[in-house]
Amino acid sequence: MSIWNKSCLKVSHIYKLPAILKKTKRDIMNKIKLLLVTAILCITSSLAFSQNDLNKSFIGYWTTDGSMTRTIIFKDKDNVLQIVKWDSSNGEEKEILKIQVVNNTIKTTEKMVSKNWVTYNTYSIIDENTLKCSIGGDGKGSVIYLKRLK
Are 81 and 70 in contact (CB under 8 A)? Predict the structure, then answer.
């Protein structure tokens, strides 16, 4: 075999080696992608389930000390969180314009029609029988505590 043929063989072996490495690299990248997708799905599902548990903590019939306001937090037939609020002295219902679950809180935009007040409320759990409600907008930054009746 001539020197020329030997050098061609060496060159052809050099070019085969990167093809094998490329295939291995591609396999490794695909496995990494699969692991990342799996990790993202696990994290997302755990957040969704923890959010579901959080919503269960809010569900109940709530009232405030020194106020006639009553609040019911529940999930409808489509498993969507709902809130109904009213003044038990005159029966006036507050309009809940927006409900948003953010981290460990429920944020609402509420309107009291008789006074034309719009408030921005943030409900957070103090313990299993107490909610804290921070009120902004026309509520001027007040904080009220709701006690669970049921």
Answer: no
pTM of the entire predicted model:
0.62
Q: How many CB atoms lie within 10 A of CB 60?
A: 18
User: Residue 79 has what DSSP assignment?
Assistant: S
Using pLDDT thresholds of 50, 70 and 90, give the confidence band for residue 103. Answer: confident
Q: What angle do CA 112, 114, 118 make, to 5 degrees?
A: 30
- Which tokens belong to 63? 């009232």
Give the per-residue SS3 of 75-105: ECCCCCEEEEEEECCCCCEEEEEEEEEECCE
Report whether 82 contacts 73 (CB < 8 A): yes
| Residue 58 φ/ψ, nearest 5 degrees | -80, -25
Taking residues 43-60, what's their average pLDDT? Answer: 60
Element (H, E) at 28: helix 3-58
* pLDDT tens-place string over residues 129-144: 999 999 998 877 788 8
Compute the distance between CA of residue 118 and CA of residue 109 in angstroms, rounded to an integer. 7
**Three-state DSSP state, 133:** strand
What does the alpha-carbon distance between residue 131 and residue 94 come to, in Å, rounded to a whole number?
18
